[in-house]
Input
Amino acid sequence: MKEITLELLDQFRAREAERKELKTLQAAMAKTELKDLAYVPQAAAKLNGDFAIELKTRGITWQQSSGRCWLYAVLNILRERISERCGLDKFELSANYLSFYDKLEKANNFLELVIENAHKPLNDRMMEYVLGGVGDGGYWDMATDLAAKYGVVPAWVMPETYQSTHTAKFLKLLNTLLRKDAMRLREIIAAGGDAQAAKEAMLEEVYRMECIAFGEPPKRFCFAYRDKDGQYHCERELTGRSFYEKYLGDALDDYITVTNHPTHGLPMNLYYVFHYMGSMANRDVINLNLTLEEMEELTLKQLRDGEPVWFGCDSGACGDRDKGVWDQDSLDFSGILGGVDFEMSKGERLESHDSFATHAMIFVGVNFDENGRPDRWKIENSWGEAVGNKGYFVCSEKYFREYVYEVIVRKKHLSPAQLALLEGEPRRIQPWEGDWL
Output
């Protein structure tokens, strides 16, 4: 191990002193946000304009200070179906309702994994993963599993609370409780006690905490509304399940998560599953890893078919939240930091843990260049109307290729060869691999 010497620092100082632009860049950096300095308006302007394919949507949602983007993206797709059926111009489903059950299911899964792995030492890789705790985040499969089990309700039936929209402190306390419970469960199992009875008592405490913070989910509700023609409708004694079954039916049954993870660990044309910490105790996350070209073509097929596309991307890469832009050419971080080269391949960024899917949204439009290839994509976000173009964002084709990691498409769009992959036995990967792959 070689340490930094004073002689080496003197060499750095001498060479950097020859760079005449450093003083200017230092002065600019002293009082200005880095992304604002890196912003290239001429490049971002190329992303303006209408889109060749542009789907109608019914208003921007706002997850506020919570990590429920994945849930909002699924609910925003489902609300379009309900709105069409009921003739509604504006409608929203309750994210608080499903996120209540999401946290309860995550707590149950956490405790089940503790029981299953109670014989392992605390520094075992699996136990380290489990004790990492639960969060707001999730995958498409988790949302569809929740909706299938608990149904959905309109937003006014279970409105947001301050805690549901500002979840950091609650999650910190929940994880403290779960880790304490993990230690108690290990003691009970070691002593030959009844772990399941203890787990049920622990889950009731989680349920109590959630009822206080988020409100208790209603067992029954009334769905009253006026359609776009002014006609009044009212259905009484609905449950989340009966509402889902009547207005959505099998809406979520025919989808598959298509990933593009060009890493050494996951070859292309691979059907794989993993059991994630955020899953239900008896459910897995199911993916099909395809080439970038295949993932993009499937996305286009679904948009051309008039249906939005749920996708996961790295929202921290090459993005300007206020302007609603994701594009490498529109944010010149290399130039503003003295020409440092940050480039890596997509696979290298994944394998080095530099990048992974941090945010979920839906594609609602796409535009094409003179050769008929996509050049920019319209995005419905869940960050409220105060950012982007009244809540809508745009990403370049260059960003799509490098930082979009997964899309959700109907199986009917898959080719025969792609469908055949789903007929085989999936490869099971370790759960912590799913956190970044």
Notes: Residues 176 and 242 are 36 Å apart (CA to CA). DSSP finds 17 helices and 14 strands in the chain. The mean pLDDT is 96.
